[in-house]
Amino acid sequence: MRTLGLVVNKSKENAVNIALLILDFCDRHGIRVYAEDWIASALKRKEIGKPFEQIRKTADLILVLGGDGTILSTAKKMGGSVTPLLGINLGGLGFLTAVRYQDTGQALEIIRKGGITTERRMMLSAQIVRDGKRAESFDAVNDVVVTKGALARMLNLEVLIDREYLTNYTSDGLIVATPTGSTAHSLSAGGPIVCPDMPALLLTPICPHALGNRPLVMSDTKSVKINIRSNYRNIFLSIDGQVGAQLKYNDEVIVRTSKQTLHLAMCRGTPYYHILREKLHWGGFSKVQ
């Protein structure tokens, strides 16, 4: 590990203090650090400040200090780079930011000794087709959500899988999620937890009117077309809960696996099932010796 990138959510408590700890560690072990300008200035080390584009191209690993939202926003700026992201959780639940901020020092030692693994997480590509033409396109790590505003009635969403008609959902919305996103909005809507190494797409209706409308897990080779059959003003497409666009009657939303992938770093010895137990507060104990 020769060069470390540093991305910090300035709204998080202790963010600057944790960044200072990281910088001090790297200085002592001869690791070069590149950070965004604002945190470089806050650390009184303006010489390490670099544009993010340079950070993603030159860093061996990017440490992301914040919550899952910070990882998601950083992933959108990676532009297909294979530089892995390692999240240090300064937020709440944190499925993507698996390292607790209290364990930052331990994690840095693991990084220095090469004790990290990198997982490739699939992403989604979403296109809005309006009047037969592509209007907008997005990439998502967690999910693509068609949803309604606070005052809109239930939506009528016609869904086709690989051009084959599936059903019309009468619901508050519809989530298309990756396995990584199965523990995000989809889980809150009653969707299943899917291990992130499983190549799959998840389709989860939000508060469906028909009790028979259940979540669906399908191959990642499939494409999902959502036709908007409700003529309301307040219908939206949300990408990872961060960006999106307003939808219109007869718009088509086409979702498929993206060509881009998220490269997520993990400290060796932190398996996915340990993260599930910790984050979801599952009880019990293991009898395995």
Topology:
Layout lengths: L2 E6 L6 H14 L3 E4 L1 H6 L9 H7 L2 E6 L1 H9 L8 E5 L9 E2 L3 H9 L3 E15 L2 E8 L2 E6 L6 E7 L2 E8 L1 E5 L7 H4 L11 E7 L9 E4 L4 E5 L6 E5 L3 E4 L5 E16 L4 H9 L9
Parallel strand pairs: 1-2, 1-3, 3-4, 4-5
Antiparallel strand pairs: 6-7, 6-17, 8-11, 8-15, 9-10, 9-14, 11-12, 12-13, 14-17, 15-16
Walk me through the structure.
By secondary structure, the protein is of the alpha+beta class. It has 2 domains: 3-115 and 268-280, Rossmann fold (3-Layer(aba) Sandwich); 123-260, Probable inorganic polyphosphate/atp-NAD kinase, domain 2 (Tumour Suppressor Smad4), CATH 2.60.200. Helix content is 20%, strand content 39%. The protein is built from 7 helices and 17 strands. The chain has helices spanning 15-28, 37-42, 52-58, 68-76, 104-112, 185-188, 272-280; strands at residues 3-8, 32-35, 61-66, 85-89, 99-100, 116-130, 133-140, 143-148, 155-161, 164-171, 173-177, 200-206, 216-219, 224-228, 235-239, 243-246, 252-267. The protein has a 6-stranded antiparallel beta sheet. Strands 13-12-11-8-15-16 form a 6-stranded antiparallel beta sheet, with no helix packed on it. The protein has a 5-stranded parallel beta sheet with strand order 2-1-3-4-5, with helices on both faces. The radius of gyration is 21 Å and the shape is elongated. The model has no long low-confidence stretch (mean pLDDT 93).
